[in-house]
DNA sequence: CGCGTCACGCACCGATCGGTGCCTAACGGA
DNA sequence: TCCGTTAGGCACCGATCGGTGCGTGACGCG
């Protein structure tokens, strides 16, 4: 599992992007319009949102429905496949809630122990 | 959950990298040396492996044990926090096994429907 | 003495990620 | 007529990701 060309790597490619899982999660309660998504999710640019939605559509996780109306209206909804991904995502979210403080504590510990650390491996910290 | 500055975003930063989850998973059965990891995992460069391990160490998921021996010997092991992440990772892996074919089918469908697609949103395909 | 092993650092590089800013198209309202 | 709204395309940009290649230090072996 997860070795070399294993299919399981595919799952991580689906979550490798910063926003994929967040967008999927934001669609869990039904169809949403891009504007709504941009509102619900904080700090995603409109370009990246559409790119993300295209990618999710390409992978069969969401469906795009465009209505030819006065102000253009578009809705994105999860497919069955997309909905099946909600459970794993929630598992992760639960883990994060339980252990976020431990991760933060570990990061702080690192900063203490190594005096003047040359290159803190990465921010990894919500701005 | 997953909104704006929510802590749950942290979980995805931990998996945002291509190799983080794979390396954690490769350590599930006990300590491993870098060489072993490079062997188990396919196609990871030595630079990226050490970077990944440093990052995991920084986040408190793995521990580094160096033995001052003749040919330098180093072992990396999961911490308790790291082990607690195995369950969510496995959940994902299970999802991938179940649905990988659906994702691939969706991708193929995309290629059929849109004749000469201008920009296939992304490879997202194991090479 | 030269070679191999092992962990790892560093310089360099191309590809991708994500962000900003500006553009269109189509309509309703003032 | 001009503005606002909505979706989204396009150009451009800096930061990061991941890869290659080379060097080092300490040892063991022939």
UniProtKB/TrEMBL annotation, chains A, B:
<keyword id="KW-0805">Transcription regulation</keyword>
<keyword id="KW-0238">DNA-binding</keyword>
<feature type="domain" description="HTH hxlR-type">
    <location>
        <begin position="6"/>
        <end position="104"/>
    </location>
</feature>
<dbReference type="GO" id="GO:0003677">
    <property type="term" value="F:DNA binding"/>
</dbReference>
<dbReference type="InterPro" id="IPR002577">
    <property type="entry name" value="HTH_HxlR"/>
</dbReference>
<dbReference type="InterPro" id="IPR036390">
    <property type="entry name" value="WH_DNA-bd_sf"/>
</dbReference>
<dbReference type="Pfam" id="PF01638">
    <property type="entry name" value="HxlR"/>
</dbReference>
<feature type="region of interest" description="Disordered">
    <location>
        <begin position="108"/>
        <end position="127"/>
    </location>
</feature>
<protein>
    <submittedName>
        <fullName>Transcriptional regulator, HxlR family</fullName>
    </submittedName>
</protein>
<dbReference type="InterPro" id="IPR036388">
    <property type="entry name" value="WH-like_DNA-bd_sf"/>
</dbReference>
<keyword id="KW-0804">Transcription</keyword>
């Amino acid at each position: 599992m997860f070795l070399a060309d294993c299919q399981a790597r595919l799952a991580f490619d689906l979550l490798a992007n910063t926003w994929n899982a967040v967008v999927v999660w934001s669609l869990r309660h039904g169809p949403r319009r891009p504007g709504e998504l941009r509102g619900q999710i904080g700090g995603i640019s409109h370009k990246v949102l559409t790119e993300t939605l295209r990618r999710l559509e390409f992978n069969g996780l969401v469906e795009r429905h465009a209505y030819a109306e006065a102000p253009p209206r578009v809705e994105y909804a999860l497919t069955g496949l997309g909905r099946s991904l909600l459970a794993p995502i929630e598992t992760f979210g639960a883990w994060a809630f339980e252990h976020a403080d431990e991760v933060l504590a570990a990061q702080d510990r690192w900063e203490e122990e190594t005096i003047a650390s040359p290159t803190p491996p990465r921010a990894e910290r919500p701005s």
